Hints:
This protein is of the alpha/beta class and 367 residues long. The chain folds into two domains: 13-43 and 275-365, Aspartate Aminotransferase, domain 1 (Alpha-Beta Complex); 45-272, Type I PLP-dependent aspartate aminotransferase-like (Major domain) (Aspartate Aminotransferase, domain 2), CATH 3.40.640.10. It has 13 helices and 13 strands. The protein has helices at 13-16, 45-52, 56-60, 68-78, 96-107, 124-130, 149-159, 179-188, 244-252, 261-271, 274-297, 318-327, 352-365, and strands at 32-33, 90-93, 113-118, 134-139, 163-167, 193-197, 220-225, 238-242, 302-303, 309-312, 330-331, 333-334, 345-348. Helix 2 (45-52) packs antiparallel against helix 10 (261-271), helix 4 (68-78) packs parallel to helix 10 and helix 5 (96-107) packs across helix 9. Bound molecules: pyridoxal-5'-phosphate.
Amino acid sequence: MTSNGFVPPAARAAVEQLQAYSAPLEGRRSMLRLDFNENTIGPSPLVAEAVRGFSTEEIAVYPEYDGLRDAVVNNLLETGCRPGLQPDQVGLFNGVDAAIHAVFHAYGDAGERVLTTSPTFGYYSPCARMQGMTMDSIPYEGETFAFPLAAIRASLQATTPRLLLICNPNNPTGTRLAPETIFDLAASAPQTLVVVDELYEAFTGDSVLPMADFSATPNLLVFRSLSKTAGLAALRIGFAIGHPDVIDRVGRVTGPYEVNSVAVAAAFAALADQSYVDAYVAEVLRARDWTVEALRSAGIRHHCDGGNYLLVWPEKPVAELDAALRGEGILIRSMAGKTLIDGCFRVSIGTTSQMQRFMEAFLRLDQ
Ligand SMILES: *Cc1c(COP(=O)(O)O)cnc(C)c1O
């Protein structure tokens, strides 16, 4: 209410029903951050150098993206992408979050359907609601959280959703899906845009890009980000890879300068130092083995599959354990309220010494 009795104008109906998507992201610096699956040791030294070397001229001018799409293509080819990928098949976004938002904006009309799995990455659902779309979330199956392939296939055929979102490996269950299966799904549903969120593929090697022929399956779109493995989460830069026409449509709904110049400079440096990322991934995989073995020998229920994270069911209520660990400067992510995994927490996997610190505190506090 204002002084003259006027109220602010209402937003679109779908927006009036929405709540701002907010993750608990304050006060995390200087803590051992095992809550958001970020790189836990920081990016390549070349990235820090590029950011530090930023000139006043570069700060004063609008961002320029010359050559960045080529650098992404070269990096993808270096890491196994099918030859022939062109720069116009790469979209640049202010993080994959912005790419998700843009895909919904470009492809999702009110009343249309989105098909996905549950539990999965939290930002798909508010984007669907923002568009007034109906969300069909099919639960993972059994103790191992297997991909609900038969149900996804049946729903895909029966409802022809506008979008199918597959997070592979899935955050937070780690569930893996073979790239061939994703091709089959895409080929069987040419009217559906099949979005494959591959932010954690470096930990599994299950990418569709080594085989993706976007002229044969133009309805396939792949997300990659520099946030998680490369350690650029603060700078916000992510990519969508697909058919040039799809990249063009998704690019139409974003502003002209959504990716900032610091992110561009850092991205060039990160993409040029793949060996740094490879070494980090190798360390995380060693730390994952160590952690799983430690949980097993302590007799603690856990679930670990793809990705740099795993699920743990503590003895204590999760909220209590979360607070106790936080008191020691260690952050985890409670899965309270999530379909199928209520009562557990997700812990990101960092280096072996970081996981040793986590396990020591966890075993001591969860009694
Ligand atoms: C972290 C995450 C994102 C968002 O990545 P940004 O590039 O940092 O926006 C998207 N999808 C999944 C599955 C994630 O875990």
